[in-house]
Amino acid sequence: MPAPLPQLQPGDAYNPDCPTRHILDRIGDKWAVLVLLTLKDGPVRFNLLRRRIGAISQKMLSQTLKSLERDGLVSRAAFPTVPVTVEYALTPLADGLIGLLDDITRWAEAHVGDIMAARRAHDAMAARRAHDAEAHGRQAAARAYG
């Protein structure tokens, strides 16, 4: 019989209703991180933001910006031009987070070679296992029908 799950307490990140978990989910989203890092050098208009990030759809960028605005990490300023100009910027609340994201970026850049080597080794091992399992299956079939 499996062990019972621990009792969840308020503030426990394992509790799906924990506010900390919701915040970690937000800042752990790849698009949110890319938007925040793109905005760290100052306000950016929507289309330029989209071009700088690349590979993000207009809909996904819009949803990400709205979520970050709702969380108080990004501000939106509209200017009365034709058409309306909209700029997005980081809020003071996001300043401390940017430092942490910069640290993570530096760590990733310093270790990307190690991670890629680990991936290649893992993929090669998985391919060998698949090949060995296939060969074993052929041998077993040959014995059974041989």
Report on this structure:
By secondary structure, this protein is mainly α. It has one domain (19-145): Winged helix-like DNA-binding domain superfamily/Winged helix DNA-binding domain (Arc Repressor Mutant, subunit A, Orthogonal Bundle). Helix content is 64%, strand content 10%. It is built from 5 helices and 3 strands; from the N terminus they run H-H-E-H-H-E-E-H. The longest helix is centred in the last third of the chain and has 54 residues, at 92-145. It starts with 18 loop residues before the first helix and ends with a helix. The mean pLDDT is 88. Keywords: DNA-binding, Transcription, Transcription regulation. It comes from Sphingobium jiangsuense. GO terms for molecular function: DNA binding.
Number of strands: 3
Tally of contiguous helical segments: 5
CATH class categorisation: Mainly Alpha
Main sheet strand line-up: 1-3-2
**Could you state the order of secondary-structure elements as H and E?**
HHEHHEEH
> Shape from CA axes?
elongated
Major sheet attributes:
3 strands, antiparallel
How many domains make up the 3D coordinates? 1
If you consult CATH, what is the topology? Arc Repressor Mutant, subunit A
Over all CA atoms, what is the radius of gyration? 24 Å
Q: Average pLDDT value?
A: 88
The CATH homologous superfamily is named: Winged helix-like DNA-binding domain superfamily/Winged helix DNA-binding domain
Strand fraction equals: 5-15%
Q: Which architecture name does CATH use?
A: Orthogonal Bundle
Query: Helicity, in percent?
Result: 55-70%
Distance between the termini: 43 Å
pLDDT < 50 stretches: none
Decide which structural class fits the backbone: mainly alpha
